[in-house]
Amino acid sequence: MDFGNFYVGRPPHQMYVEYFRPLLLQHDLPIVLFHGGANTGACYLSTPDGRKGWAPYLVEQGWATYVVDWPGHGRSGFPQDFAAMSLRQVVAAGVALLERIGPAVILTHSRAGPVGWRLAESAPERVAAVIGVAPGPPANLVPARAGDDPQTQPPDRLIFPDRDDLTYTRSSRFPHGASADLHAFIVPEGSRSLDERNNIDGLGLYVRGPEALAGVPVLVITGDQDASHPREVDEATARYFGGDFVWLADIGLVGHGHMLMLEHGNLEVADVFLSWLRRLNP
Questions:
Q1: Which Gene3D superfamilies does this one have (predicted)?
Q2: CB 58 within 8 Å of CB 85
Q3: Which residues have a Cβ under 8 Å from the Cβ of 96 and sit 6 or more positions away?
Q4: pTM of structure
Q5: Is the pLDDT reported for residue 166 higher than 80?
Q6: Model confidence over 173-231: pLDDT tens digits?
Q7: Per-residue pLDDT reduced to its tens digit, 241-268
Q8: pLDDT band for position 158 (cuts 50, 70, 90)
Q9: How far apart are the first and last CA of the chain?
């Protein structure tokens, strides 16, 4: 296996990228893995209890795989304006990455969902497909809330997740005995990105409409025990873009929550989207 790392994007919002290429490459397109909020790319490398993560599994299946740390997260470094940093900076770094590596499949999780939709709109010739894992929808589907809404975060503040109340762990398939190891890589988040995800004062990442992803295949995957992603919400996101939707319980994968890449059965979930990709490019 060939592996290495590099940075893309403009300082102070550069993005760290780690890549893994199998010796026997079986697919022309690489897969780029974008983590969600309050996380880093470490969530794709292994699970808290030491099982194989999605990135090494994808490499075993013959895919070149890129794992990123969003700007301001993990090894990308911590800019002084992090609390006010927009998800648009993540999109810009994603565009720079695709300019470097060429067309790729984009996989996003949770708060990276809006990043993926905007990235596909910004660089449609370089986004071969978008896989949304419990993805946030585009702001087009999130009613704008007034700035004085109770869910508004204080402006330009660091938000520290309550590690004793993480919805991440509320599923029967989560490795509960290793929760402390998950907590170790949970990182603070900026209030700006939270307000963008909730579309406070219309700050969210909009696309020009469903036609923004015309010609880009879309798959949305959701677990039946993800309290923050009801079936009807994620199915509506897939439908908006004319994409495919998989409610994992419908295919016998019951008990999954929000952190699908970390849960028991994570590789079975990976097989779901890999099978979908192979149908696109047999």
A1: alpha/beta hydrolase (3.40.50.1820)
A2: no
A3: 8, 9, 10, 15
A4: 0.95
A5: no
A6: 999 888 777 777 788 899 899 889 999 989 999 999 999 999 999 999 999 999 999 99
A7: 999 999 999 999 999 999 999 999 999 9
A8: confident
A9: 24
Report the distance separating Cα 196 and Cα 87, nearest Å.
7
Look at the chain and report how many structural domains it folds into.
Answer: 1
Look at strands 104-109 and 31-34 and give their pairing: parallel
Residues ≥6 apart with Cβ < 8 Å to 148: none
With beta carbons less than 8 A apart as the criterion, state whether 162 and 137 touch.
no
Report the CATH number at residue 120: 3.40.50.1820
Strands 127-133 and 65-69: unpaired
What are the tokens at 269? 């979930």
Report residue 195 as tokens: 């307000």
DSSP code for 244? E
Phi, psi (deg, nearest 5) at residue 229:
-135, 80
- What's the pLDDT score for residue 186? 86
Q: How is residue 77 written in tokens?
A: 């470094």
Q: What would the 3-class secondary structure string for 127-168 be? A: EEEEEEECCCCCHHHCCCECCCCCCCCCCCCEECCCCCCCHH
Residue-number span of the structural domain to which 62 is assigned: 2-280
